[in-house]
Amino acid sequence: MGERIKKLKKIRIHREGTDELLYSLFFVIAVAVILWRSFDTPIPFAIFIAIFGTAWLLMLNFYRCPIRYFNGDTEKTVVAPADGKVVVIEETDEDEYFHDKRLMISIFMSPLNVHANWFPVDGRVKFVKHFDGNYHRAWLPKASLENEHADTMIEMPNGENILVRQVAGAMARRIVTYAKEEEDCYIDEHLGFIKLGSRVDVYLPLGAQPCVKMGQPTTGDLTVIAKLP
C-alpha cells in the first residue's frame, strides 16, 4: 500500500474513560474528606478508601491505553484486534455477507484486559453496521449473532474482504466504533472500544493460516493471529 500513514494519538488513558475517571475520582476524594472530618476514628475513612479506592484503580486499569506499533510486514498479516485470549479457531458458515465458509478467530476480553480495539489489517473500510441484541456471555457461540454487535468490513489492497465483529458480552453495555465508511485504515490504528467483558471476531478466507492456538493470550496490535495466502 506504499508508505503507511500513521494517525495515532499518544494517549495513555483511553478517551472513552476520561470523564468517568475524573468524576469518580472527585466523588472518592469528596467522600473521603467528609469521612475524615466527621469521625474521631479513621476506621470509616479507611474502609471507604479500601473499597472505593480499589474500585477506582480497577477502573483506571480497564481504561488504560498503551501505545503500540507493529514492526513487521503488514501486507499479508492479520494482527490481534484486542487483548485477551483466543476462544475460537474454526471454519464457520458466514451467511450474512459472504455466504460461504470462513475461518473465524475470536478473542475474548475479560474486564481486566485493555478494551481498545485495533484494525487487524491494512485496507479501506467498506461499511460499518451496528446491531442491537442480547447480552449473553461473550464466549458462547451464539453471542456472535444474538448479542449486540458492530460489524466492520475491510477491503485489503489485494481485494480480499475481512470482517471484524465487535461483540458485547454479559456486562458490556456500549460498543464504540471509530471506523468510517470509505476511509483508509491501518494496523496500529484504533478500530473502536468495548466497555467491560466482550469479544472480537475476525472472519478470514479459508486459505488463511492461523498463527495462534486455543487459549493463547493475545496482545492487541502486536500478536499475529493469521497469515493470508
Could you please describe the fold and organization of this structure?
With 229 residues, this protein is an alpha+beta fold. 20% of the residues lie in helices and 33% in strands. The chain has 3 helices and 14 strands. It has helices at 18-38, 43-62, 143-146, and strands at residues 77-79, 84-94, 100-109, 116-118, 123-131, 149-155, 161-168, 175-177, 184-185, 190-194, 198-204, 209-210, 217-218, 224-227. An 8-stranded antiparallel sheet has the order 9-5-6-7-11-3-2-13. Strand 6 (149-155) and strand 7 form a beta hairpin. Helix 1 packs antiparallel against helix 2 (43-62). The two termini are 17 Å apart. The relative contact order is 0.20. The model is unreliable at 1-11 (pLDDT under 50).
Quick tags:
alpha+beta; 3-stranded antiparallel sheet; 229 residues; 14 strands
What is this structure's SSE topology?
Layout: H1 18-38, H2 43-62, E1 77-79, E2 84-94, E3 100-109, E4 116-118, E5 123-131, H3 143-146, E6 149-155, E7 161-168, E8 175-177, E9 184-185, E10 190-194, E11 198-204, E12 209-210, E13 217-218, E14 224-227
Antiparallel strand pairs: 1-14, 2-3, 2-13, 3-11, 4-10, 5-6, 5-9, 6-7, 7-11, 8-10, 12-14
Helix pairs in contact: 1-2
